Amino acid sequence: MNRIVKKFEELKKAGKKGLVGYLTAGDPDVEVSERNIRTAIEGGLDVLELGVPFSDPTADGPVIQEASQRALAGNMTVAKALKMVSNIRRYSNLPVILFGYANPFFRYGYNRICADAASSGVDGMLIVDLPFEESGELLPYINEHEMCFIPLIAPTTSGERSGRVLKDARGFVYYIMVTGVTGARKEIAGDIIRRVEELRRYTSLPIAVGFGVSNGKQARLVGESADAVVVGSALVKAAKEGCLADLVKDLRIALG
Amino acid sequence: MNEQCDEKGHFGEYGGRYVAETLMPALLELEKAYKEAKSDPEFMSEFRRLLVDYVGRPSPLYFAERLTEAWGGAKIYLKREDLNHTGAHKINNTLGQALLARRMGKRRLMAETGAGQHGVATATVAALFGMECVVYMGEEDIVRQEPNVKRMKLLNARVVPVTSGTKTLKDAMSEAMRAWAAEVQTMFYVIGTVAGPHPYPVMVRDFQSVIGEETRKQIMEKEGRLPDTIIACVGGGSNAAGIFYPFIGEPVVNLVGVEAAGLGIGTGKHAASIGAGQAGILHGCKTYVLQDADGQVLNAHSISAGLDYPGVGPQHAYWADNGKVEYCSITDAEAVDAFYELTRMEGIIPALESAHAVAEAKKRAQQLGNECVIVVNLSGRGDKDVDSILKNDKR
After folding, report:
1. What CATH number is given to the structural domain containing A41?
2. Integer CA distances (angstroms), A159 to A153, A195, A196, A200, A202, in order
3. Measured between alpha carbons, how far apart are the two ends of chain A, in Å?
4. H helices of chain B, where?
5. Active site residues of A
């Protein structure tokens, strides 16, 4: 069974909320990045989103933009990111999602990236700028290699559209809590519970909520309705500032 | 011949909508609104009326007699988009999009700009319709196109300096897309070129097609026949798409798009996405992109801020592949020579962007012979470039 699917079944059985963490691969170099990833995994991540850096990350705020620049300055590539995943597999069985923008994967070749990702131990892919309408060129390869293509749903997505986007989806749904780019927000929208419940009308998949969650308190609030919480920019920032272990601990405690 | 894209905005393998889900509903809404507007005679007649009364169309098709004589070959005609209100072809499109924004009930416009011509044209229509306007512009371009920054400010637009990456058009467009995502419900994004996600490439091409439609009529009046060659510069490619589109599929007309070769294609410092790029995905569409082997987008270089972009409109990528348009490139130095030649021979100071098309016309005029006719799209005037030319070149 796909590790993502299995993980969410386990979480459900245990009555626990999942912690999905994002880190940019190779930020600022492979060695430090691998150490940070291990710290986050051992601190209690349930799912890792490993970001493949892109030169023009149009959906990201300053924190992940800068992390991408650092990683690219350290000569990070798609192939090296895959190598990092195989290294993770030596010590951990947690689900890993390759997260990024379409162009580096397109250049690598959709067929080839799916084959190489699966054999490196990747369980799913999330491509920010590959919406439902354009995903047809990648999906056959994702399915062939039994990975999940993680769909995004935004506050601007209508119910009817959510239904269409999620019809054949696997793994979980990533619900983007706010309009805008990635990055910490001071406050969590008050109607998030209602919005997540509404989304459940269109899918039976687990719902992970992200964009803007930066601490345990916010994670707990989001976890009241979501099945999992996604934390990205805050982890990247904490990794840079050397307090990653503390933040992961804070988030883990908050989510139970 | 199939010049229409499919229902998802693909021209062959190019085009499409490669954007975050947050923006998808807005693009679908825009597509629907544009389709309705295009078939609404009232919308189109207001657009045409403003093109005449406000922009000053039709722009003249001017026979450049002295250039023709000096180059000793084909007759050179200049399509004078530089004489439009605000000094470039950009206003054709911003007017169309602002009318559409108004029709959709949106009162706030945002734009990215390289040379500043699109920023000025957006700020202008925002003033005309009493709308708010925010323009994203790379910090480097703010320096090299300062006169346009001042104009935008006078027009009450807020100019946001973009400091990421190369601080030029590419980064301005990335930042505009980020800002749009944050305010997508109330903000209308006025894209200035035939790139970006569907329906922008189609919509901008359609609004700019007035250039080619007029050219066809004017050359028939003046020469009684179609031109042998039409030449336009290509950054994102809106002025080129506008003048080419009505001539696509005319077997007698040779369409030539001129990319910026910067310091020379071999140096790596250029903006020739078609000439030296590969298929890729940038800023919402699949097209030719300057990129490395790992799919990271490379920095473009051109003396002309408006051509300094590592991508190109997807329909140009399509035309390049199917041979409907021929693409070539002109270096910074050749463009500056043409800038001087046109300025001193005809008393017309061209934009550095347009000077690339003029330089290519010179090469071809001499090969073609004096029974032939070349139309050059003079997409903009060069006031914005005066300072940087005078600073860098001591002729």
Report:
1. 3.20.20.70
2. 10, 10, 11, 10, 7
3. 25
4. 24-38, 41-50, 65-71, 90-103, 117-129, 139-144, 146-154, 169-182, 200-208, 210-223, 238-244, 273-276, 314-322, 332-346, 352-368, 386-392
5. 49, 60
Enumerate the β-bridge partners of residue B255: B230
Strand pairing class (B158-162; B132-138): parallel
For A41-72, write each residue's pLDDT tens digit: 999 999 999 999 999 999 999 999 999 999 99
Q: Is the CB of residue B183 less than 8 Å away from at least one CB of chain A? A: yes
The residue from B175, B379, B384, B388 that is catalytic is B379
CA distance B260 to B302: 6
**Known catalytic residue: B46?**
no
* pLDDT level of residue B165 (50, 70, 90 thresholds): confident
pLDDT tens digit sequence for A6-53: 999 999 999 999 999 999 999 999 999 999 999 999 999 999 999 999
Distance of alpha carbon B20 from its chain centroid, rounded?
25
pTM of structure:
0.97
Q: Which pLDDT does position B1 carry in this prediction?
A: 39
Q: Say how far apart CA B61 and CA B371 lie, in whole Å.
A: 18
* Residue ranges making up the domain that contains A150: 3-9+18-255
Kindly state the helix (H) or strand (E) to which residue A116 belongs, with its residue range: helix A110-120
For chain A, the domain total comes to: 1
pLDDT score, position B392 = 80
Q: Which residues in chain B touch residue A74, judged by CB atoms under 8 angstroms apart? A: none
The nearest CA of chain A is from the CA of B340 a distance in Å of 36
